[in-house]
Write a structure and sequence with these properties.
Blueprint lengths: L10 H11 L4 H8 L3 H8 L8 H7 L10 E3 L19 E4 L4 H8 L3 E4 L2
Helix pairs in contact: 2-3
């Protein structure tokens, strides 16, 4: 289910935007998902993004995000929680060919494009 639409959104930029829209501090968000503030800051800067399914579910950054249209998932993501993108019907993921994110998109019938 590949799509033609291009995106410049990154995972880190998106979770930072969601955190700020919800009025949450970096420290409080990091604590809520069980990581250090330094680690969470690295995630927002796209320097690290390995999240367990449990942490991604705790983050709840994607469920019911009907406005979410595009998101880039780096190769370092190796687990995505069940229904992590529930009701995000307009979403197009940018993934690497052969990545876990591609397999997840296929399995869950989410539109995706390949990263350059």
């Amino acid at each position: 289910m590949s799509a033609e639409k291009e995106t410049n959104n990154s995972f880190g930029a998106y979770i930072e935007t969601v955190r700020k829209q919800r009025g949450k501090s970096l420290r409080a968000t990091a604590h809520a998902i069980g990581v250090s503030p330094q680690y969470y800051s690295e995630m927002e800067k796209d320097r690290s993004s390995t999240l367990t399914a449990e942490r991604l579910n705790d983050l709840r950054a994607f469920a019911n995000c009907i406005e979410l249209a595009a998101l880039s998932l780096p190769d370092s993501i190796t687990s995505i929680g069940y229904n992590a993108f529930a009701n995000s019907d307009n979403l197009i993921l940018t993934v690497s060919e052969g990545s876990y994110a591609e397999a997840y998109a296929k399995e869950n019938r989410i539109l995706y494009i390949y990263a350059n």
